[in-house]
Amino acid sequence: MAEMEGKKPMRGIEVKHEFKCTTPVQLRFNDIDTLGHLNNSVYFALFDLGKTDYFNKTHLFNLNWTEVPILIASVNCDFLNPTLYHEPIAVQTQVESIGNKSLTLLHRVVNTKTGEVKCVCRTVMVHFDVKTKIPTTISQEWRDALCKIEGRDLNAVHE
After folding, report:
1. E-state strands within 6-149
2. Tens place of pLDDT for every residue, the chain, 159 residues?
3. Contacts of 70 (CB under 8 A, 6+ apart)
């Protein structure tokens, strides 16, 4: 998978930083549509797997999903190449930017043998208070954990 890492242009999207989180995915028979391609709705479940793996690696919470102070505000996916049933794929995830109350994740699904990018997704996530349900400032603890996993300073990036 080394050929997939690093900076690679993606149909109008330049990847500026190496992906630190790669999540292998096993496709299932029911993920495939009648054309033999991965169904477009399945990609969003793959992005969720990538998010789960990414946030688990930050150690910011202990899988008590009722207390996770972040939610999805927007998801935008560009499908670039079809994914076929027999292909070995993985979801790569990184924090693209971080603002005051939100962060943007960049995901891509890639063929782990060829490095071919299948799709690219941006997910905007909002940090909020679990009790009041009101958006809140991303804590320094979160910022530090995200900077640590990314290996770069995300604090200078603004919304």
Report:
1. 9-10, 13-14, 21-25, 70-79, 89-98, 102-111, 117-127
2. 444 444 444 444 567 889 999 999 999 999 999 999 999 999 999 999 999 999 888 887 665 667 778 899 999 999 999 999 999 999 999 999 999 999 999 999 999 999 999 999 999 999 998 889 899 999 898 899 999 999 999 876 544
3. 55, 125, 126, 127, 128
Q: The whole model's pTM is what?
A: 0.85
How far lies 146's CA from each of 20, 56, 98, in Å?
Answer: 11, 11, 9
Among candidates 84, 76, 20, which has minimal Cα distance to 47?
A: 76
Half-sphere CA count of 96, side-chain side, radius 13 A = 19
Q: Residue written as tokens 């782990």?
A: 112
Amino acid of residue 25: V
Q: Which of 69, 145, 54 is nearest to 101 (CA)?
A: 69
- Between CA 8 and CA 98 the distance in angstroms is 21
